[in-house]
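call fold(seq) -> tokens
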Amino acid sequence: MRRNREEASRIHRRALLKSSVAGAVAFALPFAGKAFAQTGEKVLRVAMTVSDVPLTTGAPSQGTEGLRFMGITVYDGLVRWDLSKADEAAKLVPGLAESWTVDEQDTTRWTFRLRQGVKFHDGSEFNADAVVWNLEKLMKKDAPHFDQAQSTQAAQYYGGIDSWSKVDDYTVEIRSKRPDSVLIYNLANLFFSSPARWKELGGSWEEFAFKASGTGPWIVDKFVPRERIELVRNKNYWDPGRIPKCDRLVLLPMPDPNTRIAALLAGQVDFVEAPPPDAIPRLRASGMQIVTNQYPHIWCYEISAREDSPFGDVRVRQAANLAIDRDGLVKLLGGLAVPAKGMVTEGHPWFGKPNFDLRYDPEEAKRLLAEAGYGPEKPAQIKVIIAPSGSGQMQPIPMNEYIKENFAAVGIDMEFEVLDWESLRGRRRAGAAAPENEGRDGVNNSWAFWDPDIALLKTAASYEAPPTGYNWGNFSNPEVDELVKKAKETFDQQEQDKILADIHSRIVDEAMWIWMVHDLNPRALSPKVEGFVQAQSWLQDLTSVEIS
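ret:
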């Protein structure tokens, strides 16, 4: 117990250090606000949960929050998510590609017809040559413009691509390594940087970071690493319906939730990600808007199924899932979450019919642990990597402390390794077998299920280890592997849904991960903010937002 208290104290000290950095950023905000007021610009100021501005060159870091704020703002993909509706799940629609086809005789062959008349922010033309150049920057290591930083961030999205070629100025062909019906989802996260700007800057990605040029609705204006990035309205954006309503978008890293709330109440920001539940009543009483919506999110531990981990035993994995009081966790979160029954929500087409029920049953957890050789005199010792903030991480410090207490009550002794969010993501990309993860049994990396790959296929297949796959803990089930291959080769959605439901049932029965809750995605907005549509997605479109 004493060690637990000391460990919790260390976590709080590290969180306090993060808070002091965020506080320094918040202190500078009033002066920026005065400057904006003098220019007469309509400015939207956003407090992000990340501790640094995501990578600006075209393949954002910082997880999905990076895609949200430095991906779809400055850049476009061949396809994009329609984020204009709050009452239905986001769907893929054409982006820089007007249309695409899959060869019926050779389903590895995809052909994309590109949108004509699109310009990069520097005025240069987007065409097939730009597509080829951008795929080379990620995948062709001997290309002069290859960028390892971008390649690392985008690896999870381009892993299924085998080759690409220009057909004509506005047509490209992309070939997948094998039949891959879900390739199109991954292409939504591959963005296109300007070859002309890179050449103009002497072939330097470091310089490009400060003068980034994409095709998106926002243009980079000012960038101060670890402090802020300011984007301005692209009045010439190719989609007239998504030309931003605000003149300027200011993105500010603020990993500490209390600092974000203080900045909002002080009028220093207008839009706050992930407000802490205990602050919601005060925010509402102050006239702030609280918006929520369901979205494809799961807060979880990705765990090691390797023999050197207690979680290598399915009984320990099941016991850990049974040890968690999810209703109590939802209460801790002020009702801004729903208990999880697996990777996806109940009622989802991929949920299936698992036999193992994720419920709160500490007695059954104790029985399973005893069967696996653990007990009061010999608790299961595990070490989990966590971060004090990050994309989709909700309120990670109190949530992890709560689960630690749940585990201790049944005979699981959990130790934390606390890293900043991007370092944690690096350890997740490395996989459980990596030397730097020796002795670590899990990683608390919130997850998504917006497409089959990220939800089930690349998480469950034994051959989908990081960095291109998501199977962090080397989970292996030959029957699941066969189902994954079958799902990839199935282009009929209804038939594919049945296969995915079978996969989900099997991984829940084997307790592949420890699943806790699904977030309701709360945000706090100033009363001056109008026109924001909270999509059922990890991504959000800020082009519709106005400041009154």
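The chain has 17 helices and 22 strands.
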